[in-house]
Amino acid sequence: MSHTSDSPRDSPAGRTTRAPGAAVAAPPTSAGRPAGEPRPGTRQAQKQQTRRALLDAGLRLLEHQNLSSLGLRELTREVGVSPAAFYRHFPDMDGLGVALVGEALGSLHEVVRAVLADGADGSAPDALIDRTVAITAAYVDAHRPHVRFIARERHGGVRTVREAIAAELGRFTDEVAAGLAVQPASDGWTAAELHVLAGLHVDHMVATAAELLEAPLGDAAERDRIMRAARLRMRIISVGRLHWLDPD
User: Fold this and answer.
1) Rounded to 5°, angle at Cα 191 from 188 and 197
2) Cβ atoms of residues 101 and 162 within 8 Å
3) CB atoms within 10 A of CB 80
4) What InterPro entries does its record include (predicted)?
5) What are the tens digits of pLDDT across the range 180-215?
6) In the chain, what are the helix, strand and coil shares in percent, each to the nearest 5?
7) Cα Rg of the chain, angstroms
8) 3-state secondary structure of 34
9) What is the DSSP letter of 190?
10) Alpha helix locations (H) across 107-190?
């Protein structure tokens, strides 16, 4: 009497049988993942690439328009992703703008601290002024799209972006005030007076960056004029600082 076995090796050609329509699990890889499933690190890298592409496309499209006029579909079409993909990275277009603010101004904090450290070490005022203006010009040269975005949106129509810019510039002002406070020339100054002085320096830096941005590319004479005027303004501020506590 014959006996029929249900074991896989007894099926035709040694293959496992299954009911019609039954799902077949993908064979595991050597790392225990189903075949075809992306590695966690790869998935994260792809997500970061998409986020980067959205930010870069935003900067390109904002070269000649305000954030308030940039449409979601225009942006996602530029990147080649769906609008749904955008929302996996940003809550809305305002969120994209806030992220661009962080990129544009966040990296400047270390530069500002380095300049202030030079002042605390007793660097000559004129040398410090020259370095500050040179750093501002170099930053504009290296980050023109970001500087253009800040210059346009600082007083633009998107409130959350205006507030983000104001908050970053406020942080700069606080840092500059703290740096000025440890310099010998600040003896006798109140905290409020130093904060006003720091605000003058920050406003001057932003104004100089905007002027350099508007200068025609390749116009060395205009660039030199802007930088000379910037250094002169800073020297006038410096002279006023030296004599602020003089008797009336």
Assistant:
1) 90
2) no
3) 10
4) Homeodomain-like_sf, HTH_TetR, HTH_transcr_repressor_FabR
5) 898 888 899 999 999 999 999 999 999 999 999 999
6) 70, 0, 30
7) 29
8) strand
9) -
10) 108-120, 125-142, 144-153, 159-181
| Nearest Cα residue to 109 out of 151, 159, 170, 187 | 170
Model-wide pTM > 0.70: yes
d(CA 39, CA 79): 24
CA 221 to chain CA mean position, Å? 30
Burial of 200 (0-12, 13-18, 19+ CB in 10 A): middle
Q: What is d(CA 203, CA 201) in angstroms, rounded to the nearest whole number?
A: 6
7-57: per-residue pLDDT in tens? 333 334 444 444 444 444 444 444 455 555 556 578 888 899 999 999 999
Catalogue all structural domains in the chain, each as residue range(s) with its CATH number: 42-90 (1.10.10.60), 103-242 (1.10.357.10)
Task: Kindly state the tokens that stand for 62.
Answer: 């904002």
Euclidean distance between CA atoms 174 and 160, whole angstroms: 21
Q: Can you tell me the distance from the alpha carbon of 155 to that of 135, in angstroms, rounded to the nearest whole number? A: 24
